[in-house]
Amino acid sequence: MRTGIRLAAAAVAFSLCLPAFAGEVAVLRNGFSIHHERHEAMGSFTRLYLDVSKKSFVDVPTNEIESFEKDTPPAAAQTPVADPVPAASSANIKEAVANASGKQNLDPDFVNSVIHAESGFNPRAVSHKGAQGLMQLMPQTANNLGVKDAFNPQANVEAGTKYLRELLERYNFNIAKALAAYNAGPGRVDRYKGVPPYFETQAYIARIIRDFNRKKLAEQQAAKRRAAAQRAAAQDHKPPKSTRSLSHIAPAAASVISAVPVSAGHQAAAH
To answer: Which residues form the catalytic set?
Structure first.
């Protein structure tokens, strides 16, 4: 379907949802950017063709465009299996994640979701660009974080989690920006003032957030089931109705009430 949008504000939506082709990036004065195949001046507007078919385009006021840049997205990370991972290592990875998450005050499920996206929990994973280990640390990053052996699960996770925490703090705990920086580098996030217009980076962010949300939802549902089971058990253990006189029932009831925690509001009322 042919689309022609003459609003510069539409750049926000396009910059976040378009796939990244090997073409140009229009950097706008408002700080956003639009990835496109080529551009054509149309009077006071500049038409940005979003794909090679020319059927999809966006018209932007020419005076709203700061510059055009050639750009290529970072290649998708490759994580070929280097060596078989011993089955026993899963327990070590779980422990490493728990320890590192505790030190950095991060949810271990979030760290696990990052590891799942980065290496598929393969401690020996190596990308075609040289990133190594569970959290795919680049050699320079690993060196800056004091990691001597990036294939050591504990050292890799501890450094990767620390770096993730630093990025979260740098971007005021904006998860999307922090993950974009982890994937594409802080320089690209700063350059585009947000998530870069790269399909691979955007898909990476969505994959992690979706996996993390799935874990949290499962956790909430499990908690509800446990609470329901506890309520059912409490109902089953209620004493049967008795035909005894109130003088016999009163002492037992008093002992049950005294064992129930009382809220501060109720305590104040009692006094």
So the answer is: 118
